[in-house]
Every structure is written in C-alpha cells, then in structure tokens.
What does this fold into?
Amino acid sequence: MQPAHSTQRELCRPLERAGANGLRGAHCALDSAVRPGYGKQGPGIFAVVRTVPPGQACLMKAWPIFDATGDLPPGIHAATLAEVLAKFGSGTPQRQRVARRLEHIYALAKASGHLARFIVFGSLVTAKAEPNDVDIFLLMEDSFDVSQVRHRILAAFDHTAAQNFLGASVFWVRRAAALGGEQGAIEHWQVTRAGGQRGIVEVISHD
It folds into this structure.
C-alpha cells in the first residue's frame, strides 16, 4: 500500500543497511518507526524498519535535484525516516555520523508521545559532503509538558544539552505557541541567513 503522505515515488534497488542490533542484509526500507522494547542492554527505544525481500521492487521517494547552491528547492519535502536516511545518511563518515544523530533524536522525540511534526533543516539536508551537525525543529502537541519528560529523553528538549550531548541544534514549540501559526512557524526555517529560501524536510510517520 502506498503511504498516505507519499507524492512522487520511484522503484528502488535493494539497500544495504546495518541496523543498531548489528544485523546486516540487503533490503529496501519502505518505512520505519520507533518503539519501546527490550534488548541485550536492557529496555530502550529501538528503530523498526519495514522491508521487502531482496530482488523485489519497493516505492521510495523521488527527491528533487539540488539547486546551484546545493540546497533543496524551496518547500517542505515530506519523507519517512528511512527515506531521509537513505538520501542524506550515506557518503562521508561525517555525514553518516550526523545522520545517526538525527535517527537518535527522532526516536527520543517520538518517545515523548507528544510529537506533532518533525522538521530537519541545515547542512544535513543539502549536498554538503561534511555537514556540521543536524538542525531540527520540533512542533509539539499542546499537551506536551517538558517538566514531565522522562530523564532519558530530556536532552532532546534542552537546546544546550542537545548541542553538548546529542550533537544537534534542536528547537521546539507547542502548536498553540507557534508564531504565525503552525505552518508559518515551520516555513520560517526555509529562510537562509542571506535572506533567501531553501528546501527543508519533514519526517513523516506511517505507524
């Protein structure tokens, strides 16, 4: 079944991917989710990737071409976490490291139970070979209370802690407090320091 938020999709080849559990196999990631579970190191948050067997076709997002400055064209480009990691999480060791940070923070934000929208901007979602870090904007449900957040995910909602311990710049706001409304608050992150516009990415979930 094609995801509800899917726009243009293309056939993809099997993707070689190593998971956090050390398993490796040729597969094509269709979607991913994060769920609580129990592993060798005890309870935690684990990425769950839905796949199809090797040799079978799957539908993956057809990303637009980068512009002359290495940015995505203006707009909010929606994709699953698996699609974002497949596009922006390979290449140089630094890009792979930063992509793993993105995956970790997404798991933390989802584990809060109050994540409304997850936006990625900055150098990771550009053609830059060596992105500095990952820049993230979290739009949270109005029911979110940071004082009630469990300690193990709290760093994702503290800007300084996120920079120091997670290697990311994370900004968040509740839906009701979003200046200019929800959509306006998200579109704001398209604006570059020079005053132009670039494309940003929204990680969508189908779980």
